[in-house]
Amino acid sequence: MNCRIPYRTGRVAILSDLHIDSYMSSGRDVITSLGFETVIKDDLDALIIAGDLSDGPAARWGVALGQLAPHIAPSRIYIFPGNHDYFGGMIEDDNLLAQQTQAIGAHWAQRQKLYHGNTRFLCCTLWTDFDLLGDQNRAMNIAHRTMRDYERIRKNRPVTPGSGFQSPSYMPQILPSDTVIIHNEHKAWLESQLLRSHPARKAGRTVIVTHHGPHLSTAGPVDGLTPAFHSDMTNLIDRFAPDAWFFGHSHRRLRTTVGRTDLRNVSAGYCGEFHRSESKNFIETCIWES
């Protein structure tokens, strides 16, 4: 599915990991606390939120999105989930999250192409394949033991005929192998879109936006959990040379270039984690000019 962002100023902001509930619990406004009020406003053509708007379940998304309404019209918000947005719910909750998004007048962007000027944005959560450091089984075991994703997200399972309704307490928790399946699906979707010719031909630019990271070079200090935050997407980057790749998840605001691709971590983080002194450089990182 394609969506065209109305073009006025040519400016799009991409942010991840706003964790709005952590600001709400402190009685603070997320945008003014971060020092983003100079950019997140109605003269921005669009705000793309690359996951972790808040902790789930899906029914809370509308309230969280409503916290942004004083700064930018919901019609200019394009959003897809990160891992936290599924907390307290199901890994299959994309339909419910999409309903919450559309009910407030914002746009659902999971596995969507967004066109703006001569730029196409390819958006998806991605998850990871746990193979960043070459030992997938070890990385999956560490993630299963230590990450809240595998405690707080459940999955549907077939109901045995005649057994009746299953309450959420009987729904099994997801496993790393479940998110690897989604990673492979999202990676295949990205490849399929990148194989298609750009409508703007040679003048066209391509920007990938995911929640999870695409490369070790923007991971920061490496430990056993790093493969749960980043995958090695070098082959895809080398093959298709997207102009930029925006992502979040790790809360490490790093930026580098791999080949011809500008990699930008645009994760804000929890209340109190981001310091206003960082705002100027971070705003420059999260803005895309189409």
Number of helices: 9
Morphology call: globular
- Rg measurement, Å: 18 Å
- Report the count of strand segments: 14
Largest sheet: 7 strands, mixed
Sheet-strand content, in percent, reads 15-25%
User: Portion of residues in helices?
Assistant: 25-40%
Instruction: Name the helix and strand elements from N-terminus to C-terminus, one letter apiece.
Output: EEHHEHEEHEEEHHEHEHEEEHE
State the secondary-structure class. alpha/beta
Largest sheet, order of strands side by side? 1-7-8-10-11-13-12
Report the average pLDDT across residues: 93
End-to-end gap: 20 Å
Poorly predicted runs are: 159-165
Keywords: Hydrolase, Plasmid
Protein name: 3',5'-cyclic adenosine monophosphate phosphodiesterase CpdA
Domain Calcineurin-like phosphoesterase: 11-252
GO molecular function: 3',5'-cyclic-AMP phosphodiesterase activity
